[in-house]
Amino acid sequence: TVELMEGDRLKHLVRLPIGNGETTMIIMGTLVYAMTYIRHEDNFARNESLRQGGIQYIEEGLRRMKSHRTLPGAKCFAIYNFYPPSTWLGAYATRTFCMAEKLGGVDVDRQAIDDALECINGMQDQTDGGFVEESRVLHTDMTGGVGAEKAPMTAFVLMSLIECA
What we know:
This protein has six helices and no strands. It is mostly helical. The longest helix has 20 residues. The mean pLDDT is about 85.
């Protein structure tokens, strides 16, 4: 038997996403996964304050990520806005935004998702259709071993695209 975690035991995962683009997404991804779990286990009814706080933090994280685009008005995400766009960060952010959208009650800017998807599509290698990371990734532990190799990066990006379909 698997013992399910109650909302109270997940409170430490519900926190405000802050920092550079990667750090914001590390916190935001954890937050969205925790909120998805709580919703799936039908714990929102018993944890209304946790749900409300989580939604507010997700919405703030979405706003903060807009400042981590490569240039003002740009569509691609980067660690800092003066870094080149990151394939991995763009795919991870987009996937997380789409998961947040499915939670319900979260005000997700669909244009930000569409812009990020357009950016990711523009990073595709035109010769073989794959994806590579051409930017710097600081938190390589977050890439789950994807690294800069084409096959795992392509699989990761495609999973993100499917999540948003």
